[in-house]
Amino acid sequence: MATPRTKVFENRRFTVEEYLAYERASETRHEYLDGDIRAMAGESNAHGEICANVFGELYIQLKNSPCRLRAKDTKVLTGFASLKKKKGLFSYPDIIVICGEPQFMDEHHDILLNPKVIIEVLSDSTAGFDKEGKFIRYQKWLPTLTNYILIEQDAPFVLHYRRLDADRWEAHGISGLEKTLELVSLDCRLPLVDIYNRIEFPPSVEDDTDESETAETEP
Q: What is the pLDDT of residues 127-174, one digit of tens each?
């Protein structure tokens, strides 16, 4: 999750080349958006638990498949990146599924080009961009992406975007601990009770919110 720009990055915009030089020498992670560099914030306990739960469940199910997992420290390039330009998105998704051989931007092998599934655990500071700005770019620039999954921290709710074809996506809301997230393209199932294992919800959250929604979206 990225935070607002820190003082060292204020009042100017950086080229992709400047960002990559800084990021590859840094001990902390930073996302890049059209010239802006933002440090990644620390995660909450719930965020960490949910990420660990999802990664663990997927690892078991994908262990003998052509797919593999990455978590937190793998950058994804979204958009055409010209080193001298101030344009593009470099992000650090919470969990990535790659099927087949990973494809990278350059010889450093640290910037992924072909994610199949991206999973984000939502935070208050980043939820808006994860749901809108990032997803718009993902639809346009990541042709290998088939599933985009957004997981709420404070309630048992998952928003699952699934690609129908090149220009159309289906949005499906899954609510309640008795429900299951189905990832057909991976032959994987993630019961919400396992996604939210060890998570204590606020007293106001009811587990009987079992309504779900399905809609189609276009980039």
A: 888 898 999 999 999 999 999 999 999 999 999 999 999 889 999 999
User: CA angle 178-184-190, nearest 5°?
Assistant: 30
Neighbour tally for 107: CB within 10 Å: 6
CA distances to 60, 100, 152, 185, 191 from 188, rounded to whole Å, are: 10, 17, 20, 8, 10
Quick check: 216 pLDDT over 80? no
pTM: 0.89
Residue 130, token pair as written in the block = 């994860």
3-state secondary structure of 22: helix
Question: Nearest to residue 89, comparing CAs of 70, 108, 112?
Answer: 112
For residue 77, give Cα distances in angstroms to 29, 90, 114: 15, 5, 9
List, in sequence order, every beta strand (DSSP E) within the chain: 30-33, 36-39, 67-71, 75-78, 89-91, 95-99, 111-112, 117-121, 147-151, 157-165, 168-175, 180-183, 188-191, 214-217
Residue in the structure block whose two tokens are 């276009």: 218
- Residues 196 and 207: beta-carbon distance below 8 Å: no
CA-nearest of 61, 60, 63 to 183 is 61
| Rounded percentage of the chain residues whose pLDDT exceeds 70 | 89
